[in-house]
Structure formats: C-alpha cells, structure tokens
Design a protein that fits this description.
The complex is a heterodimer of chains A (787) and B (235). Chain A has four domains: 203 residues, no CATH class; 120 residues, no CATH class; 216 residues, no CATH class; 122 residues, Barwin-like endoglucanases. Chain A is 52% helix and 19% strand. Chain A contains 22 helices and 20 strands. The two termini of chain A are 23 Å apart. Chain B has 235 residues and is an alpha/beta fold. In chain B, the strands form two sheets. Chain B has a six-stranded mixed sheet with strand order 6-7-8-3-9-10, sandwiched between helices. A four-stranded antiparallel sheet of chain B has the order 2-1-4-5, with helices on one face. In chain B, a hairpin with a 2-residue loop joins strand 9 and strand 10. Chain B is globular and about 45 Å long. Chain B starts with a strand and ends in a 12-residue tail after the last strand. Classes of the chains: A alpha+beta (787), B alpha/beta (235). Chains A and B meet through helix 1, helix 8, helix 11 and helix 22 of A and helix 2, helix 3 and helix 5 of B. Bound molecules: adenosine-5'-triphosphate and magnesium ion. Magnesium ion binds next to helix 1 of chain B. Magnesium ion (MG) binds next to helix 1 of chain B.
Amino acid sequence: MRPLDRKLIRDFRRLSGQALAIALVMAAGVATLILAVGAYRSLEETRSAYYERYRFADIFASATRAPTHLKQRILQIPGVAAVETRIAEFALLDVAGMVQPATGMAISLPDHRDVTLNRLFVRRGRLPQAGRVDEVAVDESFANAHDMDIAATFSAILNGRKRALRVVGIALSPEFIYALGPGDVIPDPKRFGVMWMSQKSLEAIFDLDGAFNSVSVKLLRNTDEAETIKRLDDLLERYGGSGAYGRKDQQSHAFIDAELKQLQGMARVIPPIFLAVSAFLINMTLMRLIALEREQIGLLKALGYWRRTIVAHYLKLVVVIAGGGILIGFAAGTLLGQGLTRLYGDFFHFPFLIFQRNPDIYVIAAAISLAAAVAGALRALYSVLTQPPAVAMSPPAPIRYRHLGLEHTALFRHVTQLTMMALRHMIRFPVRTGLTILGVAMSVSLLIVALFSLDSIEYMIDATFFRADRQDATITFVDERPLSVMQAVERLPGVLRAEPFRSVPVRLRHGHLHRKIAISGKPPETDLSRVLDLNLQPVILPEAGLVLSEHVANELNVRPGQRLEVEVLEGRRAKLSLPVSQIIQTYLGMAVYMDNAALSEILDESVQVSGAHIAYDGAATEELFEAVKNLPAVSAIALQKTSLARFRETLAQTIYIMTTVYIALSGVIAFGVVYNSARIQLSERSREFASLRVLGFTRNEVSRVMFTELATLVLLAIPLGYLIGYGFASVVVKSFESDLYRMPFVIAPSTYAVASIVVLIAAGFSALMVHRRINRLDLVSALKTRE
Amino acid sequence: MVATVFDVKNLTKVYRSGDVEIHALRGVNMRLREGEMTVLLGPSGSGKSTLLNILGGLDTATSGTATFRDMVLTDMDERELNLYRRDHVGFVFQFYNLIPSLSAEENVSLVTEIAPNPMSPREALDIVGLGERLSHFPSQLSGGEQQRVAIARAIAKRPEVLLCDEPTGALDSKTGVRVLEALAQVNEELGTTTALITHNAAVRAIGHRVFQFGDGKIVQTRANRKRLKPAQVTW
Ligand SMILES: Nc1ncnc2c1ncn2[C@@H]1O[C@H](COP(=O)(O)OP(=O)(O)OP(=O)(O)O)[C@@H](O)[C@H]1O
Ligand SMILES: [Mg+2]
C-alpha cells in the first residue's frame, strides 16, 4: 500500500470521533430534506391516486328536493363527465357506551349498481343491500373510534324516528378523508361519522321517492369550474339548491389540502435551512480540520508531490467522511420519510400508500453537502498550496498576542493568567472565533426553528379556545328556528347561559375573487363565543356591514370600507352588496360575522337561529346529553373541550411528529458542531497545552483554559442564535398558513431556554470529552511532534 | 575545470510580516561545484536556512538569480520548481518534518515512491543506523532518531544535490559522526553535491569549502586545505 493511503487510513482512524460527528451533522441536513420532501410527495401522490382511482368528484351541491330526472339535465351541462345523485342527511346517533350524542351523515348508495363517483373502498364486510333499512356501511375512522366491527349495532334518529342500525361493512371514501361534523372545527371521528345506506331505504325514510338532495359532478379536463357551478346552481335553484362548490370548498379536500400544504411548506422552508446550515458547518469544520495539516501539506509539496496528488489525498478523506454522512442521511431520510408517510397515511385513512422516492432530492441533498465539504477542504488546501513549501512547513511563528487593555480594570482584577490566555487567544484569531460562534449560533437557530411552532400553536389554542370560543358546547338545529327557541335551550338541564347564532351559506365575491362561506349572525355583544380583533380584544359587531377574518379578507383582497357582493345561497337567494366594516383575527377556519338582527333584515325575515353556544354545569352533563339526544330538533352538538382535545391529538399526529424529528435532527447538529469546535480547538493548541503542563500547570488548570474559551464562545453564540433563529422562524411561520390554520408568530421564552440548554449540554459533553483528551495528552510526544 | 552546479548572484530575500520588513538575504553570491561538499556557518538568523530553501526550490527569492546547472531556479514557476525538487533535490529540514501518522520506513518510502532511482527505505535507514526501528512512529523516536529518519529520507532517492539544514543539530558526537559519515559516503560514492548548515564549528573541517554567513551575506569563503574525515571530528 502506498504510504499516502496508509496515512489516510491512520488519519481517518485518529479522527474517527470527529469524522462521525461531521458525518452526523451532514446526515441530519441530508435526512431532513429527503424525509420532508419524500413524505410530502408520497402523500400528495397517494392522495391524487386515491382521488383518481376512486373517482373523487369535482363539484358538489345540495338541494332540498330535486327530481331524479334532473340528472339528465346536469349531464348535459358542457364539460360534465359524470353525475351522481343521492340523498345525504344528518342524523343524531346514539351509540352504546357514549354519553355524549354523536352526529352521523347518512348517504345513499345506488341499488343494483356501483356508485360511479366518490367510490368506496370497502375495508371489511360489504355494502348494504337494496332496501335493507337496517343495514349500514360506516366510515372506518368512526368504526375505529367506537371499536365497531361487522355486526355492531347502534341507533340513529332518522327523520325524527329512532332506528336500530347494523354495521355490514367498513369503508373509506375519498370524499371523507377528513369528516368534519357540523359546528366542529376539527374532525372528531367519535362524534361524527359517515354511514352509507341503500338508496331505496333512505328514499323511504326521508320521503324522497324519485328525488335527490345531493349531487356530485365530475368534470372533463380543462373545464371552467366556475361556469359549471353557475349552470348547476341555475338548475338547482328551483329545488332549494344551496350553492354548488368545487373541491376548494369541499371540507375534506380543503382540510387535507391544508395539511398537505403545511407539510409542503415545512418541506420547502425548514429542510433547506437545515441543509444550508449543515453545509455551512461542514464547510467550516473541514476547512479547519485540513488547515491543521498545514505543515504536512507543505512537506509533501517540498518532497515533490504534485498539487493534484496532495489535493486528491485530502479529498479522499473528505469524501469518505462526506460519503458516510450522505449515506447515513439517505438511510435515515428514507426510513424517517417512510415512517412519516405511514403515520400521515394512517391519520388520513388512505386505503393504500404510494412511496415516492424521486432521485432528484437525493441528488440535490448529496450534491449540496458534498460540494460544501469539498469546497471547505479545497479552501484550506488552496491557502496552504499557494504558499512556498518553506513557509507552509515552518512551525507557526510564536503568536503575537495583544494586550487587551482591560487587564487592570476592576473586572479583570481577579482573572487568572490562564483565563487571560484563553481570552487573548480568541481575540488573536477573530475570524476563527467568529466562525465558531456563528457555527454554534446556527445550531441554536435550528433548534429555535424546530421548537417555535409549538409555541405558536399553544398561542393559537389559547386565543381560539380560551379567549374567543369560550362556550362549553355548540348545539346545531336541524333547521332554522325562531329566536324564541332560546328559551327552550336555556331550560335544558344544566345549561347556565346560551347564545344564539345564525349560519347562512353565501358566496362572497370581490372582483374576480370569490369564496363560498357561511356568514355567522350573532348578537352584537357576546360573552361565550366572542369575536376578537387583531389584537385579540373583544369586538362589538357593528349595526351593519360584515366583519371578516384577516384570512378571508386576504383571500378576497378587501379592506375595511370596501364592498363585497353577497349571494345568499338559501331562501330567496338575495344578491346584495355589503360593506366590510372590520377585519378581525381567527387562527382556525374562515370566519365572517354579522349582527344577527342586521342579517335578518337583509334576508327579509324575522330573527332566526341555526343553533346555540351554551355554557353548562359540568355536574349535569349526563342529563343534558340525554335530553339533547332525544330532541328531534337538534342535529348535532359540538363539545369545545373535546374539540380542543381532538385538535391537540390532530396536531400530535401531524405537526408534533414532524417537529420532534426536526428537534432531534437539530440536536444532532448542535452536538456535532460544538464537539467538533472543541476538538479542533484542542488540536490547534495541543502543543501549547503540553507546554503549560510541562511548566507545571495541572491538568485541571489546562482544561480550564479550554473550558473558558468554549464557554465564552457558546455564551456569545447563544444570543446570536436567538437572532438568527427568530429570522428563520419568521420565514417558516408563513409556510404554515392555509384555509384551516394561521400560525401566530410567537416564540416563547421556554423555546429560547430549551435551545440554549441543548447547546449547553452539547458544550458540556464536548468539554468532558476534551478534558479526557487533555488528561491523556502525552506531554513528550505532543512537544516532539506536531499534529 | 569542474562543472558548476549552483550559481547564485546577488540573491536577496525580504520577508514582510505586517509592516515590518526583514532582510533575510542581502545580496548573496556563491558557486557550488559538482561533487563538492560545502559547509554553511553563521550566527542564528543570518540567512543560512533562507538560502538553502531557495536552492532547494522551497522558497522564492525577492531579487537576484539562482541557477541549478542550466535551470534558472529564480525564474521557474510552481510546477517547474516541484519537478526540480522531485527529480534533483534531497533535503534535510531543520525541524525534521516527519509525518506523525507514518512509521520511519513509511516516512522514507514517501520519497522512494516518487523518485526515479531510489534505494530501498530499509537500506537508507540502515545507513543512518535505524535499521532496527523501521516500524516505529516519530512519537516513539528520540529527537536525534527523528533527525536520522529525515536524513534517510533525503538520501534514499539518491539525489543529485543534498541540502541539509543542521543535520546534526540534535545529535551527540557519536551519532553525529555516523550521520556525517553517511553524508560523506553519499557525497563520495555518488558524487552528490552537498551543502550542509551547522552551528558546530568542528564540522567545518569535513567540507571542501566553508561559507561564513553574517547578517544576510556571505562574509567569508574558505577552502579547507586539509579535509578531515567525519570520524576525526569530535564535539
Ligand atoms: N517566514 C518568515 N517570515 C518572516 N521572517 C522570517 C521568515 N523566515 C525567516 N525569517 C527571518 O529571516 C532571517 C533569516 O532566517 P533564517 O531562518 O534563514 O536564519 P538561519 O541563519 O537559518 O538561522 P538559524 O541558525 O537560527 O536557523 C531571520 O531574521 C528570520 O527571523
Ligand atoms: Mg536555520
């Protein structure tokens, strides 16, 4: 074997600890990109395959009662590829062992043929037989939430009559990947489920013979969706149509889209930051590592080795380290990405998963890391190779330290010579010191980026569940009721206070922008479900005009004072122009509010309510639920505490997992960086330390010089890391925005604290390792040879 | 008439570190002849190493010329200098400069690897009396032993010129003599032109000629009328 290759192997062995640390930093950067992009792409691909294979519709509409023959007319609308009509109705469910009432959505399946749109994936069992009134297929998440299997039974109030139902099948539908109950902000499969029944049965139950009240439409490619929606609305108008909408306004799609968008946002912003930071750190570390070889590089040159041979020699070392890092990163990224895809796949209840492993992301991650590593090595090599060998080989001239000018100030009176030595060393090499500080700061910033989303979410939860919507529950009526119903609500057992609300489906239009949305009519001043302004202060609704959440205002590009066209999608279908009075804050969902009295006025009706927010006495919970279950007028009850718990659960399954992965990876990076900084510092100064030992200083005293330096560097790096982290986080927070969530930008003190603690632990650990090395420092050989 | 191997004319070298200029060489003129053994003497900091480095192609001059046979070292670029070092020069560095992660034998083979007509590393180490220490690493060798490995490395390629910066600096009289004998042997048997720097006045007697340095210049050149064999030198 050639002596240079021998040297390579021995150098590698000598540096193995550091090499591993560098490789891990690199692996973390590479893995982040691969796992985030891989998971996102896999889920995106899975969803579109799911939509494709199970023919998820493009347009949805409901009516009160439309004749079956209208289907032919809908099919004739240009661009329509397929139409499926059906019956869809809400029902209050009574499930054994569950105190609180649940809500179901009963959907009809055509008898004697397969459904053509929104096809079902039957996980177990079969679909209900034609005309069997007692048979249902239920949505898998609902079944799981209730531990239901084939042959399980429960009862439902269908059209005012309680009926016993038997589960014959468990199914999944692309239409209800996310099933959101009425009045809910977050899916809760325990309290809301979809059940499919025979068309004949539902027609009989709901007196809808020869009629439908729900329609799904599939469009041909490149069809103008808005135009089709308009035509469909025209057709359905006479039959109580409540406005057709596209996928964008379909709840399940909107929800999963928001989740995927969030994943994509995280994949687009966080991994590049991780990769860039790890690339920078690798670059810096390898540069310093190679710079330590200055004299040996000079010697090889002096002996007549060609530059390219020397460069190749060191690049081999770098490539082995980088290659190791990249491979670890590939493996970790692929495995974590798959794990994450599986977790999300479960969460979304996809019937199957498609793993995307596009080579591009691997190539990009590897290329960036390798380039950073090689560039760092080349920079160091170049600076040595351009010197004459005589200069490169000569032992470093004794360093000219400067007096700090502070030695005699009060601050430094008690500082020992050794501490002084540490401080002078840092000031003597400002670039090196600066880079180390920057490197450690970067790892602090990654931790902040990984951690802060939890703070933002907590803030969002506090604002939403404890400052805005403070009710215990929300009751939704089957249909609109006069205001006097509130007296009945207040008389329900345990109810302490009740606030009415009215929900009116509308289409808001501003220029070419439009959204289908519900206006919530409320009393001007509320105490339970409050409207909060941008500073989270309660708002008194104005006597006229709309109050829009910031997100809706942005979506429609309106400012207070401007007017919106409002197309009411029920009743007389009034078309109005209303001013925007105020912009308010909601972090969840899309909200538009109006004074209920004013709303009734423009609808030209007496004050109606769609439901009520209530506060109740916890001691009377069971009686209250029992009473509600038996009230035919109530179609759903949403519980705020359960929603909050579900919200946290949802987050736990999505953002928290992702965040945990990022926290772990940034922890790895922090350790790698601090450890390497400490080790390189030790290498650079081992002779000096050996000299100190020879002069009679104890091991502990010598270690203290290192510790002083390390501690000073880390303590300077932490606040800088806060600043950089704040900057990165402000970019990341924007990527979280969707129709469903807005993330307030909040970084809690605890995040800064945790980031600091992780880095301090890394520093402590590194200090310990370095201390052990100082203990083992072979004085004679350290003085004899230079490493 | 013996051929001239090195011809140095008005050679100067100025080091700049920050705002300080250090004149290491202030106009050196000298000639080294084929097969000649020369000794460079002078106080510390007088420019001996600087001159040797320039002759060895390890450093560049500020002005003046230095030629090796028909090659003008002071005009050569980086590549040509490397080729020159590789093919013609054996150098013993003042600070040994061994690779710590390579054993004695491997340190020598670093050179024999790329030399056209080398001896075996073992042979070279035998000459300096380290045949038994082949597999020892620099950190396991004494300072003098490291210096001898450095010498073995320089002679192993059978160079045309051997430039030695204080090859006996760290050695006792007995080992020093062995090293000098090795150098003398190479010089005589292979006709290697040799220049060696020493602080040891006694060593001057083994050279054909002695250059006395002072403050960046050669202040005196003397030919030894009667050369001593290394064995006759003691210190
Ligand atoms: N890289 C350098 N930068 C600045 N000054 C240098 C450098 N190398 C050498 N010098 C200076 O040049 C002068 C000559 O140095 P040189 O090493 O040639 O002396 P020397 O005669 O070999 O001394 P010694 O016997 O101590 O080895 C000295 O003053 C030295 O400080
Ligand atoms: Mg010298």
